[in-house]
Amino acid sequence: MDETAGGAVNMRLIGAIVAVATIGGFMFGYDSGVINGTQKGLEAAFDLGKVGIGINVGAILVGSSIGAFGAGRLADNIGRRGVMKLAALLFLVSAILAGAAGSSAVFIFARIIGGLGVGAASVISPVYISEVVPANVRGRLSSVQQVMIITGLTGAFVVNYILAHVAGESTAILWAGQPAWRWMFWLQALPAAIYFVALLGIPESPRYLVAKGDESGAHAVLTRLLGTASATRIVGEIRESLAADHHRPKLSDLIDRATGRIRPIVWTGIGLAVFQQLVGINVVFYYGATLWQAVGFSENYALQTNILSGVVSIAGCLATLLLVDRVGRKPLLLIGSAGMAVTLGIVAWAFSTAVHGADGGVTLPGSNGVIALFAANAYVVFFNMSWGPIMWVMLGEMFPNQIRGSGLAVSGFAQWIANAAISVSFPALVVSPGLAITYSFYAAAAAVSFVFVRAMVKETKGVTLEQMQG
Fold it and tell me: How is the protein disposed in the membrane (predicted)?
């Protein structure tokens, strides 16, 4: 059913709401990407080896998995906006504490706090957007979340590059007697504060308000967004969707009472979440500088390469904005899986030709370095026009109203656990079995994800949230 029928859609207000909500995506990206240029500083400050770097980098993922799992349920109790405000405060505290950390233990604690915010923002921002925008533009506007994630990542890469360039390198003193790598963390406090203040000006999700019995509040929000006639009808539809099985949402709702088994839609959500990570995208985001330095790039050039990856990522996301509500979710996922399998395979081949020098350095012979760079960025484009935004779009919209919070909790938790497994293991895998085998695994995961989408994913383009079946 067309949610816009019978009333004037206030696209200016909807746009403003989406802009504020997706600052959470920006913080998600910035908090995840800032670590990329700080690893030399962490090694020097805390005397870390490869395993230690993996633990310090991966600490955010521990918090993210907990934050994602808890946010879905918490959002059913304190609201979508309430959880986003909490996430903003967590980002702010983490930024200050991580920059000031005097030990690895304090740094890990700070990053876990930031991870709680990342996990919460990662699942709540998409579902909030899906609950306040019309179905015919839901995919496009929900995809803005991924654009902002990549913008945040790219912003972190740019800030890291500028600070390292001004100081001379990331470990050199910059301002107030502190090295540049610490300022890379401290500067993210500014967008965190902006996020919190901006959240004070947007309304709560009308679907949450109806679930809490505040139909007048939901009607008021929807009237501002879609007009009075649409508001009255949609409140009724939300009420009806909840009436058949309305009780306080709980995890056991994910089990089908008729069969006693976990609902198929839950397995689909978990599969989407896990495959998004098994293709290795966060290796590029977290370890881009380390990765390119491992094959002979200087720190300065490696940081510039990160910025290039961020720019092409944004281009891929913008393509999704144009296509997701026209082509649909499932076709884009299939295209992305196929494209990633091919490009990751090329990257794996290029790294298999690496030459190890007498000084322990590694180079790619001939034009293989250029081939690896182009293939890696093509892979990033395929990811960001498909699995990057579409996974979050679908998790925000695919679950029925009654289980949306619980479905997001489980799927988000699975996503961040897979993220942690891939990210923490990467530093050791660079040494053994090596980049070629590691990227071959990511290519194989991309190929399997194609089969998964064909078999398990149902198209949700144009379907209202009240019509979602589980």
Answer: Multi-pass membrane protein
